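Sample pair:
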Amino acid sequence: MNNWKGTIVTLVGALMAAPALAEDLDITRKVASDATVTVINIAGEIGITTWDRNEVHLTGYTDANAELEISESEQGIHFEVRQLKDKRRSGESVLNLVVPVGASIIAESVSADISVEDSRGASVSGESVSGDVEVRAQSDRIDLVSISGDLDFEGSASRSSGETVSGDIDFRGISGEVSLNTVSGDAQLDAGEISSGKFETVSGSLELSLHVGQGGRLTVESMSGDVNLALPSSQEGEFKAQSFSGDIRTRFGQVEHGDFGPGSHLKHVAGNNGAVIRIESFSGDIQIGHR
């Protein structure tokens, strides 16, 4: 008798511990060709691709302890996965969307990875706490943020920014205005001509390859991370570099060392295009070379 009761208790416990069944998704909505599509997911995945239709098609599934909310407006459509009230913590939900190629995209998550492919809308914004963000786009504006996940962008953009704490950043193909900021992650940039560039790190390394246009401004700041800047051999501008205890190596101008104590700095002017290139590091090394 006792064994029978024990078996019942074991079965009930197993059923309570079993994962809830997911809800499959297959949703289509009409939108404008330049609509803003917003997707918010707690955990799992967000995958976005494009097509030449004025429709959004959503497939995938939501965890049974979560629900999908959809709202529509003149500006576009909003999808959001929310945890159900009075339910244990929801698991992973997977959202796969096909959106108009000209749509602007906003994707946000906590631990879900985000991927965007072949977008040509006005802007793409991707933000995650611990998930990776990967974007392939030709857009006017790109804004990517992750705390501990990696950021990866390839395509073209006239204004772009990337920000992480411990994740790595890899941007390729951008131009115009650029801003990259990381604490301990490494950042790598392969850009065309920029008009404004601001790059900051605490302990991560910065690998930057670019060209500063006429009248452009480039500012690089590091605490202990190394800075490796590659410029065209024909780069013109006013070069300023300073490091308290790190080394400075350059193909532009001559490095000078302080007469009293550590420290080195560079001041050099090439041409007259009005560009200003400024690099500062406390203990990291600085290298300014040719592309």
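The chain has two domains: 20-152, 175-291.
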